[in-house]
Amino acid sequence: MEGKSITVRLKDKVAIITGAASGIGKATAKLFAEHGAKVVVADIDKDGGNQTVAKIHNAGNEAIYVQTDVTIKADTEQMVAQTVKTYGKLDILFNNAGIAMRLPVAELPEDDWHHCLNVNLTGVFLCAKAAIPAMQQNGGGSIINMSSIFGIVGADVRAAYVASKGAVTNLTRGMALDYAQDNIRVNCICPGFVETPLVAGVVRTPEEYQKLADKHPLRRLGQPEEIAYGALYLASDESAFVTGIALPIDGGYTAG
Ligand code: NAD
User: What is the pLDDT of residues 161-170, one digit of tens each?
Assistant: First the structure.
């Protein structure tokens, strides 16, 4: 967008983005800040989080880093408290932090199962639990949960991951119903495979890339920025009548 004039879509909004040290969260943090939001980069990775903040500052925009492990209740409460202390309110929460886990049930250690569910599902619950009172106080807000195509359809060798994302999609609907009366909208995004460090482990050669790309009718993987634009829509007032949806951004993966 450098050099182009853009319509600022999140003017004066305050947004927390979890998992913003890398990948989709990082791209979204930069985009939200470009669109006028004050961004709280919440991540377990201090170096990566501070790098995201530095990039936002270098572009002349506003952000802080708050070290957060989304599986720890006290961290999520501190994340919201620090946001309100620094920026005075909270409008947007993007529950994006997540991990991949590639094993079928019989081979999956119980601890790994719990870890995946803790980060991908309980993390969403804890961050939302901490954020909702601040949003209620602010007259409303937008919560965006990160699901996946595997929150819509199944997949092999990813038992814990597909369980966590299926649950995030339906938790989104439940939260949307519970908090519509408070003008808090809750939606989720369901990306296809996106080129980030999370998928780097399964895309090591051009052949592996093509095999994965061919599962998407558009015959390629997505870019983090393409997911960030979906989050921007759901975060902005342009989606004021949208709640409880699961938005695929997947090159057609779930269309078939
Ligand atoms: P990524 O690995 O690039 O980034 C994930 C970020 O989450 C990292 O910065 C990491 O430090 C952070 N994180 C991990 N555990 C955390 C914790 N306990 N507390 C706080 N932060 C934590 O991955 P990505 O591809 O950008 O994925 C972001 C989200 O998108 C995830 O929820 C993932 O499941 C989802 N997703 C990714 C794809 C894809 O193909 N990349 C597809 C569908 C959904």
Answer: 999 999 999 9
Q: d(Cα 60, Cα 33) in Å, to the nearest integer?
A: 9
Tokens of 160: 């814990």
The atom number, within ligand 1, closest to the CA of 147 reads 44
Residue 64 CA to its chain's centroid (Å): 17
Q: So which residues are the catalytic ones?
A: 161
The encoded tokens of residue 154 equal: 């199944």
Q: What is the pLDDT of residue 201?
A: 82
Determine the Cα–Cα distance for residues 247 and 228; give it in Å rounded to an integer.
12
The C-alpha torsion from 79 through 80 and 82 to 84, rounded to 10°, is 160
pLDDT number for residue 4: 64
Question: Tokens 């393409």 belong to which residue?
Answer: 226
244 exposure class (CB count in 10 Å sphere: 0-12, 13-18, 19+): middle
Task: Find the 66 Cα to ligand 1 centroid distance in Å.
Answer: 17
Instruction: Tell me the C-alpha distance between 23 and 8, whole Å.
Output: 23
Residues lining ligand 1, judged by CB closer than 6 Å? 18-19, 21-25, 43-45, 48, 68-71, 96-99, 119, 123, 146, 148, 191, 193-194, 196-199
Ligand 1 pocket mutation pick from 198, 212, 215, 223 by most atoms within 8 angstroms of CB: 198
How far away, in angstroms, is 199 Cα from ligand 1 center? Answer: 10
